[in-house]
Amino acid sequence: MNMERVILQLFFVIPVMIVGFAIFKPFNGIIRHTATLDIQRILYSLLLSSGLLTIITLSSIGSGLTSPFMIPFSVLIIHFILCVFLMTWTRLLVRLIYQNLRLYDKKEVRVMIMGAGELGQVSLTALERSANPNYKVIGFIDDNQQLQGKTKAGIPICSLQKAFGSIISSQQVDEIILAVNRGGMSDEKVRNLMDLCISRKIVIKEIPPVNDWLTGGLNARQLRHMNIEDLLGRDVIAFDSEGIRERLKESVILVTGGAGSIGSELVRQLLMFDARKVVIVDQAESALYDLQHELLAKGYKSNRFVAMVGDVTNFFRMVQLFERYHPHLVFNAAAYKHVPLMEENPFEAIRVNVGGTQLLANLSIKYGVKKFVMISTDKAVNPTNVMGASKRICEMYIQSQSQLEGIKTHFITTRFGNVLGSNGSVVPLFSKQIVAGGPVTLTHRDITRYFMTIPEACQLVLEAGFMGSGGEIFVFDMGKPVKIYDLAVKMITLAGLEPGRDIEIRETGLRPGEKLYEELLATKENTLPTYHKKILIGKTRECNPVLIHHEVLALLNLLKSATDDQLVSAMKKLVPEFISQNSTFERLDQTISEENGKEINPADYFDFKPAPVYR
Ligand SMILES: NC(=O)c1ccc[n+]([C@@H]2O[C@H](COP(=O)([O-])OP(=O)(O)OC[C@H]3O[C@@H](n4cnc5c(N)ncnc54)[C@H](O)[C@@H]3O)[C@@H](O)[C@H]2O)c1
């Protein structure tokens, strides 16, 4: 070999190579993360520099020049192939070694992907890219029979029956990833799948909506645990959305407690239904601020809603509000709702729940509100605690207003059980406890509750609100009761943990005023049907409106001086079915039953007919 010639050639080969590398920068990518793009860059830079060398050689031949610019074509080809091979394979080798070292010692998570469509493929790519956890995809599950038995990217596709019949146990599958468009899978199917996973102690996760993916696509860390709302939610209810939209278009609507769980969802739905203006009132400034920002971020113009910090018991502030906005509809969701807290603070239960409702109802009559919808609770049925009794008094007051002559406002009450995930309720509490490593605390192993989701409850409130013509108590069909112990077990399992082993479930004893079983709201005996199968009209005791009006006033007056015992006794007189349970106020029931020997007759108290009281 002519060394002199080789050295001379290096003086132009090296700069030419540098030009190719400087333009395409194949050295920029991190070697251990080498991807297709890095290989492309290597190819482009080598093609460019080899092309330039070929041109130089060809022009040397053409111009009759000989050495040193002439490189044999065979050398150029071998140089190109060697460079491609060495540059790509060294990178891929480093990546392989790095990945194996990274996965060494890491527990393998064996998964099956539900859905062999496009989302399934995206999930597969995301899982394969992930090292922590180290996912191994065992198979796809798909109910499309034409796909079953085939493979996708070398991975077998099978039916749900086959997966749960044999594969999951034989292959020791740890997780199922739901990679389907939720619109294309019924809620019932999702619930069945979740139940199957819970019974087999398999974690079930789902991919987030496409909008939430990272810019580079789906990342395995974005997969999220399915939540209990998915399991306990019920099928979407038939809903006269067009009718409601039509009626809301021209309305100004006041939502009190609008920053709370129910109030804020009502606000969202009202805005979604194109209500002209929603006035949101709440005393919780920060929560109201958050809602205001959420609505602006969703693109609602600031002229569509007003966020007003205010106390519903403050006469002057409420008069200011009614004067300024003249609402057509009022949804009253402002309340104190925590049973144990209200048991210790009857003063506040009466001041806020009863006082607030009474003031808003009176102002609604005065300012010609068309409909007033009160949000009540199942705890108002045969109340065993101060909170429930305060809501029952609100119901009685609202109903009595409807019976007064000449009243144009339609007063409607909606009653329902617990909503999933509301502020301070059992689901967020259990979630926090699970994240903290336990224990998950419940008051009694046998305690049961009825549940519906917040959006479902609010849909029914809207529907019932428009259905009512005044004086009705609408009761929602809450489905079957849920055992709180089972809820805890399911939430722990859904989080990928084992109840008892990873997270302890601890009983703490019933709290003051707490019932083991909530009353069934809707039975054939205590309700009448409406055109909507989930909305029923509750049959309640007839109340004398004038008596109620004066007794509520008297109760509110008591706030000026009475002790807690005197306040609760007054509530018990107003609501004879209020029998305290597991509470310090149980002793009052004895005294009252002794006094109750004589029947109260309104005629003994008042000598006039029902008439408008506030005008
Ligand atoms: N959460 C449930 O499971 C459930 C079920 C059935 C009925 N309800 C009833 O729905 C109503 C609302 O419940 P929630 O879960 O939305 O409660 P929440 O605590 O989330 O909301 C209540 C809102 O009312 C506001 N508020 C309280 N006092 C006020 C006052 N004086 N002035 C202005 N705002 C005031 C609070 O700041 C809060 O934002 C309650 O009456 C409750 O009994 C709730």
- Which cofactor or ligand species appear? nicotinamide-adenine-dinucleotide
The number of distinct β-strands equals 22
Distance between the termini: 114 Å
Instruction: Just name the CATH architecture of the largest domain.
Output: 3-Layer(aba) Sandwich
Indicate the proportion of strand residues.
5-15%
Overall mean pLDDT score? 88
**Main sheet?**
9 strands, mixed
What is the CATH C level class of the largest domain, in words?
Alpha Beta
Count the helices. How many? 21
Oligomeric state of the chains? Answer: single chain
Q: Kindly name the structural category.
A: alpha/beta
Q: Kindly report the name of the CATH homologous superfamily of the largest domain.
A: NAD(P)-binding Rossmann-like Domain
What is the CATH topology of the largest domain? Rossmann fold
User: How would you sum up the global shape?
Assistant: elongated
Features:
9-stranded mixed β-sheet, 615 residues, 3 domains, single chain, 21 helices, alpha/beta, disordered C terminus, 46% helix, 22 strands, 7-stranded mixed β-sheet, Rossmann fold, elongated, binds nicotinamide-adenine-dinucleotide
Give an overview in words.
There is one protein chain. With 615 residues, this protein is an alpha/beta fold. The protein is built from 21 helices and 22 strands. The chain folds into 3 domains: 3-103, no CATH class; 108-226, 3-Layer(aba) Sandwich (Rossmann fold); 241-595, 3-Layer(aba) Sandwich (Rossmann fold), CATH 3.40.50. A 9-stranded mixed beta sheet has the order 10-9-8-11-12-13-18-22-21, sandwiched between helices. Strands 3-4-2-1-5-6-7 form a 7-stranded mixed beta sheet, with helices on both faces. A two-stranded parallel ribbon has the order 14-17. The radius of gyration is 35 Å and the shape is elongated. The N and C termini lie far apart (114 Å). The protein binds nicotinamide-adenine-dinucleotide. Nicotinamide-adenine-dinucleotide (NAD) is lined by residues 256-257, 259-263, 281-284, 287, 311-313, 333-337, 352, 356, 375, 377, 391, 416, 418-419, 422-423, 425.
